[in-house]
Amino acid sequence: DVKVTQSSRYLVKRTGEKVFLECVQDMDHENMFWYRQDPGLGLRLIYFSYDVKMKEKGDIPEGYSVSREKKERFSLILESASTNQTSMYLCASSLSLTGSGNTIYFGEGSWLTVV
Amino acid sequence: AQKVTQAQTEISVVEKEDVTLDCVYETRDTTYYLFWYKQPPSGELVFLIRRNSFDEQNEISGRYSWNFQKSTSSFNFTITASQVVDSAVYFCALSEARDSNYQLIWGAGTKLIIKP
């Protein structure tokens, strides 16, 4: 089974803090994703990465950055957290972007509250 | 433009009833993929099924079945003999082979409540 593990399930951070959300996958997948999910807005893609050290902006990259130094690990960084970044963050991975391996598998989610 | 519509915002049924969740999609691509995910209250999105546009066979997995009809651009999901553990939000999603961002286009989700 594919396993995507997010390091923190629940976090409370102060406005202006730097926040790291860590994600690890154990299936040697090429691609990794960060989404946020908000009531009424659904799932929105923040960033994705198709290879080590490679990244692509999604729909809402502003206020976020990412890091992929190793294939299995994809980090989401909030340089200076703001209250409008309070949300649930979902990490995901897929073997490929197209074809038979393009199923995206998700982690359990990280609930971030910025106060 | 690509779009996924889940018109049912919330469905509530009594345990053991059958329930169908609707999904209608729009795409100009001839090669595309459709997905269903389940999101229980714990938050994790659980992959249920993936279908490519060339495979219109219906699929059954235990109490779950999926009806893919290209003629009506629909990919509906039926749970037979529902159970309380089926309570969750269910999302339908579309991925187009041609999309340079290879993004999933998500439906808004249908909240399914199974009452004991």
Can you put this structure into words, describing what you see?
Chain A is mainly beta. Chain A contains no helices and eleven strands. Chain A has strands at 4-6, 10-13, 19-25, 31-38, 42-51, 54-57, 65-70, 73-78, 87-94, 105-106, 110-114. In chain A, strands 2, 4, 5, 6, 9, 10 and 11 form a seven-stranded mixed beta sheet that branches. Chain A has a four-stranded antiparallel beta sheet with strand order 1-3-8-7, with no helix packed on it. In chain A, a hairpin with a 2-residue loop joins β7 and β8 (73-78). With 116 residues, chain B is mostly beta strands. In chain B, strands 2, 5, 6, 10, 11 and 12 form a six-stranded mixed beta sheet that branches. A four-stranded antiparallel beta sheet of chain B has the order 3-9-8-7, with no helix packed on it. Chain B is globular and about 45 Å long. Chain B starts with a strand and ends with a strand. The relative contact order of chain B is 0.34.
Short précis:
The complex is a heterodimer of chains A (115) and B (116). With 115 residues, chain A is mainly beta. Chain A has strands spanning 4-6, 10-13, 19-25, 31-38, 42-51, 54-57, 65-70, 73-78, 87-94, 105-106, 110-114.
